[in-house]
Amino acid sequence: MSLRFAAFLVSTAIAAPAAAQTASVIDAANLTQTVRTLASDQFEGRAPGTVGEERTIGYLIGRLQALGLEPAGIDGGWTQPVPLLHTRLGKPETLAFNRGGQATPLASGTDIYVSSLQPEDRAVVENAPLVFVGYGVSAPERGWDDFKGQDLKGKVAVFLINDPDFAAKKGEDAFGKFGGRTMTYYGRWTYKFEEAARRGAIAALIVHDTDGVGYGWNVIQSPGGENYGLVAAPDKVTSLALQGWISGETATKLFSGAGQDLAKLRVAARRRDFKPVDLGTAFNAAIPVTHEVVQSQNVLAKLPGTKRPDEVVIYGAHWDAYGEGAPDEKGRIYRAGANDDALGVAGLFEIARAFKAAPAPDRTIAFAFWTAEERGLLGSEAYAQNPVFPVEKTVANFGLDILQTAGRAKDVVLVGKGQGTLEDDLARVAAAQGRTVAPESLPERGLFYRADHFSLAKRGVPVLLMMGIAGASDLVNGGKQAGQAWVDDYTGRCYHQACDAWDAGWNLDGAVQDIEIFYQIGNELARSVRWPEWKAGSEFKSIRDQSAASRK
């Protein structure tokens, strides 16, 4: 990165506050200035591996230095390298289902959508048998196994999306086993691809269902055959030559041609005695692949603890956005993520400023600015695989990813109800602000598993996420109706689009409230010996329990 560029950005950054300033105050004007800078054209949409990244990394480091924080990256620096595998599929040479010697060609993007995370020039699947594995869940702690010993090596696993109890009725085996309408990680498409690879499958296909996944086929199509993953050692590369989705209509035809009724099998998959079904059909694919390694970076900073520096509270937000795209109606070409997640980054700077102005903490406070969240939580996953601070001594992780910009609210939206004791802290600190806690409005969409905090949750670290689109805030001006209007407008027009730009009409009073909650909870933890815990029933409790002795 250019040190001169970093120095220039520092000169335009917000100066560190005077020591007399109240530490708990989050300044909306500071938030605005940070967002306006990061979302400007100068940063070109902050895509990983671009000039926009270079400028972003320089800016982040400059700001952290100005705040007086210390580097917490690799080899005493500010960054952690995150090499990314970037792939893109070309026009298929072969793409078909075969049954009894008769091929049924598949239209790429219409009947089927696939991508690859193997660093190969061609993605090839030859006459691989298709096996329907229901929801593809292996959850011994819940007494559930969809695989029943099925050998998937060299085969194609076909999954249903979401959890076995997503549509279960009272009296069915699955009813209430996986949180009802609230999605668990077993319901996420990422889990299903991971499980297929663990079992040696050569490909994995999920039957698309708008209700189950939470979005239409147009969203499935939108990456256009492009994918990103972490660069892996040769012996760690996924077994999946292809992974993706088949449309609901195509799936119905596939099952019917195999003498099966997909609707009946959906019901059967909600029973404990479900067994995988061989569909008597093979999958054939031969698709050219272009691939490259994109060098990216996390930025890590710390404020060392004075008494227990090996115990760490981490705040995180992702710095990346979507880079350049097609011009919108205003001619904007950069999808710069002003809210998603420049505002989260701004929140971290404000929390850091508040901590720096206060007495030194007992525990270390760390700040993580993740790369490639928009490519699959890859920066945070790279950190979690090779953590700078041991996960067993990581007290908690607080994630900021999209905050509402419509003003003060009477409530705060909780993502992941029932997961951990940090939600009790959230309720208590919100009450001190005169606010209540409201659960996310669409828990079946699994937002708890779709932000960077999840990479640490998978390793047992207690987490809490602030995400403004998880539900309609009860706004002081306009109530729930106005809160829902804000969510609908942002998600309908601006989410991942050039429209997500700084707007002079933003009212950040509510964002200030939310950021202050995270500061207060983290401040308490940083000056105590308390360890937040997962609640009974959380899929992450047993992971954390394994390292309990290290926290005695």
Structural features, described:
It is a single chain. The chain is an alpha/beta fold. The chain folds into two domains: 205 residues, Glucose Oxidase, domain 1 (3-Layer(bba) Sandwich), CATH 3.50.30.30; 254 residues, 3-Layer(aba) Sandwich (Aminopeptidase), CATH 3.40.630.10. It is built from 15 helices and 21 strands. It has a 15-stranded mixed sheet that branches. Helix 1 crosses helix 3, helix 2 packs across helix 9 and helix 11 packs across helix 14. The longest helix is centred in the middle third of the chain and has 20 residues. The N terminus is likely disordered.
Q: State the distance separating the first and last CA atoms.
A: 42 Å
Query: How many β strands by DSSP?
Result: 21
CATH architecture of the largest domain: 3-Layer(aba) Sandwich
How many domains? The number is: 2
Q: What would the CATH topology of the largest domain be?
A: Aminopeptidase
Quick overview of this protein structure:
The protein is of the alpha/beta class and 552 residues long. The chain has helices at residues 3-12, 28-38, 51-67, 189-198, 210-213, 217-221, 248-257, 262-268, 338-357, 378-385, 422-432, 453-457, 479-494, 509-526, 541-545, and strands at 70-71, 79-89, 94-99, 102-105, 112-115, 122-132, 138-139, 144-145, 156-160, 203-207, 226-230, 242-246, 277-303, 308-318, 323-324, 334-335, 363-370, 394-400, 411-414, 436-439, 463-466. Helix content is 28%, strand content 24%.
